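From the shared-data thread, chain only:
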Amino acid sequence: MSFILYFLGIFSALSAFVLSFPFYSDVYLLLGSLLIICLFQYILYYVFENKKYFYIFSICVFLICLYLSWTGLLYMKDVILKKYMEVSSYQFYIMGTYHYNNDFFMNLTAMLLLVLPINVCNIYFLDKKKYILSILILFPFIFCEILFTITPPLYCLPYITYCIILVFLRHQSQIQLLPIILCISFILGLFYLNPPESYTHPREKQSYMDAAVSVPGQSNQSYNLMEQGNRYYSNRVDLVVRGVTNQSFLLRGNVYNDFDGEWKQSYSQYVKEYPFLDNIKKLSEHVQCQTQRITVSDNYHRDIVYVPYFYYPVSRTLSYFYSHFEGEKDEEYELILPNNEWNSYFTMTEDEKWQKFYNKINFYIRQGYTSTDNMRIPDGTRQVLSRFMEEHELNDITDIYELITKAKKAIHDNTEYSLTPGRTPDNENFFDYFLNKNKKGYCVHYASTLALILRMKGYEANFVTGYQVDKANSSLDYIRVYDSSAHAWVEIADDLLGVIPIEATPASSNAVTANQSDNPQSSTPLTQSADNTIDNSPASQEKEDDKVFVVSTYVYVFIGVMIVIVGVYGQSRIRLRSRWNQLDYNQRVCMMYHCLDRLKVHIPVEIIHVVKKAKFSQYQLNDEEYQKALSIYTKLISEVYKDSSIIRKIKLKVIDAYI
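Structure, as tokens:
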């Protein structure tokens, strides 16, 4: 029985912790190895008759792990903080440079540094039947999951079951439901290791909208902004990009080129050839860009394919439908690795581009920007944006890049980036609520607003959803793309490259985790970043200047509540101790009688006899008499406490400090 309880506790705690963070590429191998070592440690505890040798052995193993993998602890700290930044609106600028995602030994030894001491304490507490302490010692593993809301709350149920069982055992109740509880815990454990594919995080139902798939694996014909609420992520790996590391770039998914209250797609029912691939290839060869063959493997979507912006086609299975691409689960591309001359293209004026490129190479030239019919924009939205553009003097700007720069600055200055802005109320206009009332939003809010401002000025601007490939997730020769990397941005038309992606979200937010150039001074479009490209974004400047981090409000609330609870409980312990310490034996026995009399407990004759002797004579009680009275008093108080309701227990222990 004790072994089952131990295994349930350590399994629930470690599985919640290990599977919540991408410490190692094969999380189940890491979890299984830790469980085996913990079980071995449990067996050793009962093998050693002299427990001193067990503790010495555990300390030696801990010191060896500390020597081998102290940098692994720093890596784990970085992984945890990075995951926190993905699910919150706060930034920590204390990140390291350690990458052990594929180093099993380093992950295992670093994890043992955390697990071994806690496991030793847990084994000791269970052996001594200190069940509440056993619950508390495992709680830090669960706390990370609860605080970051990374995995579904259902995953905490094995730990909750463990707590319920230990609470029952502590009160020595007749547990007839114990076999049922253990069966439920076993089923939950199997569900945890192999969840059904249809399961969806309760708070993730809207997050896949940001990943450009309202129907997973299919192109979206519409994107309803009113349905966009808070964003929560489950650490799911949606894509894997093989063949490249230390490179950040965008993967384009769905393109929405019309707005009538919802973003709409204009798509072709027939396969078309993407017309600008030849231009992209000629330009990259002219400026001597290198290429890297990559494979984008899709783990989540069914038909839609996510493609980089600037690439050479490799496979012939890729199909273009104007609004999106479709193809195989694994598609290959020759990804262009940008150099300084390639990036300089995006800062040139049209005249400079013509003189340097257009008149020297036989390009397919797109005839300027296509005027967008803004009559389909609803009157309410058009009035809100017109008023905003007038207030920030955007109407008289004729250069598109200057308009982008000033529009972005106006939007950013007027709002705050947040992954939890809440859903727009049904009686509100999405843009009015974002710009003038709530003033909080994420990539969808910023990209939609910027796109419509450009369209109202007559420029062709599309709203695009896809993924941001983050080079920080590099491992050997591939990069994982998590669901939290889902992103939205704006596309504008370009004569040569067809479209150019423009970042609309504040660069200092954690919506874009890659170091991609988004210089607000020149309105540089969001392009792929080479390792030698200088990042002049506000995010990098903030890292250099501020060197601070902000703690979420709910952390302060949690700490405050804990301090109040500890303070209230602690004062009762102090009062109880000070009350008895300042009294002699005679006074203590009289105090015992007073407490029992107030509780209306039947007082035994032995106590009454000792009380009379202590109160009405000059006789001083000896140790034997006092200890006898104390044992009877303790037994009576414990029985009263055990049979009391929860409210009376709190009164006895916290208010009256009788026990």
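Residues 260 and 377 are 5 Å apart (CA to CA).
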